[in-house]
Amino acid sequence: MKRLVLFLLIGILLVGCGTSSTNDSDEQNQDGKTNGSGEVTNHEVDNGSEGEEESADGEDNGIIAGKVVPVLTETNPLLYTYEVANQTEKEITLEFTSSQRFDYAVETKEGEQVYLYSSVASFMQALGEETIKQGGSLEFEINLNELDLEPGDYVLKAWMTPTGSKKYEVSHDFTITE
Questions:
Q1: Which of 64, 65, 89, 135 is the most exposed place for a label (fewest CB within 10 A)?
Q2: Percent helix, strand, coil in the chain (nearest 5)?
Q3: Separation of first and last alpha carbons in the chain
Q4: How many Cβ atoms are within 10 Å of 138's Cβ, its own excluded?
Q5: Rounded distance, CA 99 to CA 123, Å?
Q6: Rounded to the nearest 5°, which phi and psi values hold at 56?
Q7: Is 160 exposed, middle or buried (0-12, 13-18, 19+ CB in 10 A)?
């Protein structure tokens, strides 16, 4: 009888140890994609611009499948929107060591830095993250009206400030006239 109980206990222990591997098909969505943590990332986004892509001359004409695209758009004179659009098939998570999510600089055409946002702003020192869903984006407003720039040609550069990943830098030339 003792041998039977010992045999059953060893059998149960071995069966329990044998189920520690996961079934990869449970963690995949219909396309076979996961987000790295086992969560299914099957988001459908219909943005009405299928088939648009970068033209042969490098000009952006819309969706560029499989890329995270930074865009800097002037919405009003000296008022810009910095947007990071996720055009990949999965969510993108950016991790940060402070409350700062992006930074920007104004430089002369010669490369001399006139203004750096992070040098005059204060940020909380707290870990955080931003997730950009498939087909989604992050947007930040940049107001250069308060800088009292002298007339001349300038370059506005904007970028994300995540730890250990791409910065998604973009630049835009602009001119101040009096």
A1: 65
A2: 15, 35, 50
A3: 100
A4: 19
A5: 5
A6: -65, -30
A7: buried
Q: Are 85 and 108 in contact (CB under 8 A)?
A: no
Mapping DSSP to helix (H, G, I), strand (E, B) and coil, where does residue 145 land? helix
20-33 pLDDT, tens digit per residue, is 444 433 333 333 33
- Residue for token pair 């099957």: 42
- Give the pair of three-digit tokens for residue 114: 């006139």
Partners of residue 116 on adjacent β-strands: 105
Residues 104 and 84: beta-carbon distance below 8 Å: no
How far, in Å, CA of 27 to CA of 62, rounded?
Answer: 32
Query: Domain ranges in the chain?
Result: 68-176
- State the architecture of 68-176 in CATH terms: Sandwich (2.60)
Spatial distance between the Cα atoms of 113 and 155, rounded to a whole number of angstroms: 9
